[in-house]
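In keeping with the milestone schedule agreed at the kick-off meeting, the structural modelling team has produced records for the first pair of proteins. Each record is given below as a sequence line and a structure-token line. The laboratory manager (R.T.) confirmed that both were archived under the project's standard naming scheme.
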Amino acid sequence: MPTITPADSDALLVIDVQNDFCPGGALAIADGDAVVPIINRLAQAFRHVILTQDWHPRRHGSFASRHVGKQPFETMAVAYGSQVLWPDHCVQGTSGAMFHEDLSVPHAELILRKGFRTEVDSYSAFSENDHRTQTGLASYLRERGLKRLFLAGLAYDFCVLYSALDGKAAGFDCTVIADACRSVDLLGSHAEADKQYAAAGIALIQSAAIA
């Protein structure tokens, strides 16, 4: 792939680079902190950077601890479909919900918090898991004239994936910077994500492709 020089209508969308998703966190992703220096370098190439932040209330509906007899990483049926049950993570105001201390994107223009409604989870930066409740990100991007999104962060097979799919469906050109992401890889979810990216026509690139 030729070198890409970000334009004024491009944005870097950094997904959930938070302590609870990094080694030692409540929902640690293997090697999750390795994305931080890559994202820091990438951000210097983009005029526009947006950060997302998982921001759950205590006893969020996606927490296994909320459901008697359920264990983390089981699935259960909820009003909007199937829901993976997670360990308690990214609880509002806790250190686990904070961005990784080495993440350095001082010029980020927006921090979008998601997952704060108790009864619905929110993987995507664009809509919650009921696929009806919008975050407002699509309108924000259109108002700003931002058309092409480059996505990085945690996790490749959940929040990055859902954000890219919803962004593409909303009419934005979405590209995932694969080496700036890490996966949960729950029951083969990494390989399944690869298939969904391909089916949606979402390009996967390496960070070295960004000038």
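The second protein of the pair:
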Amino acid sequence: MVAVLRPDDNRIVEAARYLQSLGVLPVEDPMLTVCPTGQNPRRADYCIFTSKTGVELAVNQGWYPDGETVCAIGRQTATALRERGYSVDVIPSTFTSSGLVEELSDNVDGQSIEIARSAHGSGVLIKELEEAGASIHETPLYRLERPGTAGKSVSLAVEGELDGILYSSPKSVRHFFDIAAERDSTSVLQRELEQTIIGAIGTPTEQALHAEDIAVDVKPDSVSFKQLSENVVRKIGDELA
């Protein structure tokens, strides 16, 4: 069994379906629910989106590009914009905040930049762009909260029933271990996870797991959930062989 902790929308449905296609039994346990703030990006010289969810919410709120340089972190974010008929001017080759700063740092001195993302974004992007001379405004488009139903995967992990767990964001890591702490089962969980294949998308997610003293077995080169799934399932097969 492989636990998938994606948000409680079509993403977890698609993730479970894909795991089934790989021949494993998915455990659907959403650790995130998207709560829109109702805010919309401000006009600026540059507008940065960091997620597909942010794009969808902004467009639904009536946002459209109007002369600004549109930047997208990650292929899925860029695809979400293009599917709505909007061009993307900048996509960093490294799908991280630091990768975007590397792309923009020589061009943004004296420019205004709008960052449209979740309310939980890292301060790295703001800090480094300000150091490059830009004027920054951030609009939180949504919050990521923990669903009241979350926790099935924690119970199975404590019981040693999971072969793998797929973590796709630092917030899902925090909610997972918050549940364990509330149940006074953190030490047991940490011990059992030593025998479980742990997959993580991105360095921030990996760092969140390390903060909980959990080793990461699989970290794909991209932010693709499919690649994460394939690599974790392959690793499980290798361990069982």
